[in-house]
Design brief:
single chain, mainly beta, 7-stranded mixed β-sheet, 4-stranded antiparallel β-sheet, 0% helix
Length: 118
């Protein structure tokens, strides 16, 4: 089992920045990929960024390229999402996902709320 705990959300003005953290515990060494998803009100969950645990390869949704940066600290079993130039449409619950194989996410955190005011 893998446990994921997110932190770092909050209320931010448009144009501001945030760094979200996702700490993994349990059998975190078994993870292949970790990712950040976004669940906006009334919308489907969206994959915004992912990273492979071992070699740090990243990918991003087109809607966030240039503003979102995903990174990892293997020693701390933690994945980060640095968000800059926040927009009101970035508002939503940000969830951390863990996958034992490429993009087959079976582990989830509880989510952290990000609210961007205009």
């Amino acid at each position: 089992q893998v446990q994921l705990v997110e932190s770092g959300g909050g209320l931010v003005q448009a144009g501001g920045s945030l760094r979200l953290s996702c700490a993994a515990s349990g059998r975190a060494v078994a993870l292949y990929t970790m990712a950040w998803f976004r669940q906006a009100p009334g919308k489907e969950r969206e994959l915004v960024a992912d990273i492979t645990w071992r070699d740090g390869r990243t990918s991003y949704a087109d809607s966030v390229k240039g503003r979102f940066t995903i990174s990892r600290d293997n020693a701390k079993n933690t994945v980060y999402l640095h968000i800059t130039s926040l927009k009101p449409e970035d508002t939503g619950v940000y969830l951390c996902g863990g996958a034992l194989s490429y993009r087959t996410y079976g582990y989830w955190g509880q989510g952290t709320q990000v609210t961007v005011s205009s």
